[in-house]
Design brief:
349 residues, metal-binding, 8 strands, alpha/beta, TIM Barrel, 16 helices, binds inosinic acid, single chain, binds zinc ion
Length: 349
């Protein structure tokens, strides 16, 4: 497990007794919302930065000095709000734009979540956005990630392919075609995701609707980042729900109409407590929308989102459930066990 846990999760963990931590460690739980490039352990990022050579003007846009500065910023990560959050990914992408580094990064992320005597989770659904990189097509990208994922047994991990809201329609279509093709070949792609800058792109377009329809028809499950900010229009949220998602990421600012659909359809919510607090889309744990879903006995899955910038861990996120206020939500062990069980029940396999 990463040693460099900070902030809310570190404080919550510090309030728990050894037996409470042991209880959390032993709970079977599924991590269903972790972005590959947002989950690379810092030591691996430092290693990539040390070896960085800008060999491709297209994919290595930064000088060695710029990369070093970027890594330093990542080490002292300081989020102003969610809009400032996407910048650091440009530096990370420059570091994972070769097949060798993408492979190493994937291996390290899988190990971070799945290896060791008390792994962070029993099961990981890792997600990543296919990118063109040095001598790699988007198809090569997904195959490279899958090759690592498939080194683990089927009941431990699988891949979700992400669409970025900024993608041009033809790129979105290409990504869906890749996901369908690999699934039909028996590769371990279980779903598609919609992510990226929450205010980018046109989510009403025919091409977006077609992508999700095709994915569903091919047997792929759908998860969507939705209502991540207050500025996501209510109408857009309803539009996204019309794509019949199986799960939703964040779902922070859904109105009554949208929530009625979510409850009715029992669409599980991927809850990322630290991510929401650090991106300041939720002001305090006490005000978090997880309370609404728990009160309504609605399925939720506790997830980390991006452990690289947020310096959290899945154990730490569960500590936020169990720790007493103000460090956590003060839930009972039975309630926390039920939440962990819901994460297992919300898997795409
Ligand atoms: P990747 O898909 O493996 O490259 O992981 C990093 C990418 O995930 C980022 O560039 C974003 O597009 C996306 N991402 C990570 N965290 C969030 C989030 O909280 N909201 C929306 N998109 C996110
Ligand atoms: Zn996310």
């Amino acid at each position: 497990m990463s040693a460099d846990i900070r902030g809310h999760v570190a404080e919550a963990l510090a309030t728990l007794s050894p037996s409470q931590i042991d209880f959390l460690r032993r709970l079977p739980k599924a991590e269903l919302h972790a972005h590959l490039n947002g989950s690379i352990p810092l030591p691996i990022i430092r290693e990539f930065a040390k070896e960085y050579k800008p060999i491709s003007p297209q994919f290595h846009k930064y000088s060695v000095e710029q990369i070093q500065d970027g890594v330093k910023q990542l080490e002292d990560f300081n989020l102003e709000n969610i809009y400032g959050f996407f910048g650091p990914f440009a530096i990370i992408y420059a570091l994972t734009s070769t097949k060798e580094n993408l492979q190493k990064a994937t291996r390290a992320v899988l190990a971070e979540f799945l290896d060791g005597e008390t792994p962070q989770c029993s099961y990981l659904e890792l997600r990543s956005t296919p990118r063109e990189a040095v001598e790699m097509t988007r198809l090569d990208y997904v195959q490279t990630v899958l090759d690592e994922v498939e080194k683990y047994p089927k009941d431990r991990t699988a891949l979700i392919v992400s669409l970025d809201r900024k993608m041009k329609p033809e790129v979105m279509q290409e990504v869906i075609d890749i996901a369908k093709k690999l699934r039909s070949e028996g590769r371990r792609v279980v779903g598609v995701d919609l992510c990226g800058d929450p205010l980018a792109g046109d989510m009403y377009s025919q091409s977006v609707a077609k992508c999700f329809e095709e994915a569903r028809n091919a047997g792929l499950k759908v998860t969507l980042h939705i209502a991540e900010t207050m500025d996501n229009p209510a109408q857009e949220n309803i539009q996204l729900l019309s794509y019949k998602p199986n799960r939703l990421g964040h779902a922070t600012f859904l109105n009554d109409e949208a929530n009625a659909i979510v409850l009715q359809e029992k669409i599980a919510i991927e809850i990322c407590l630290s991510s929401n607090l650090l991106c300041k889309t939720v002001s305090t744990l006490d005000a978090h929308h997880i309370r609404y879903y728990l009160k309504n006995d609605h399925p939720v899955a506790i997830c980390t989102d991006d452990i690289l910038p947020f310096r959290n861990s899945l154990l730490g996120e569960y500590a936020l459930l169990l720790a007493k206020a103000p460090y956590g939500l003060g839930l009972s062990e039975d309630e926390v066990a039920r939440i962990a069980q819901m994460s297992m029940e919300s898997r795409f396999v």
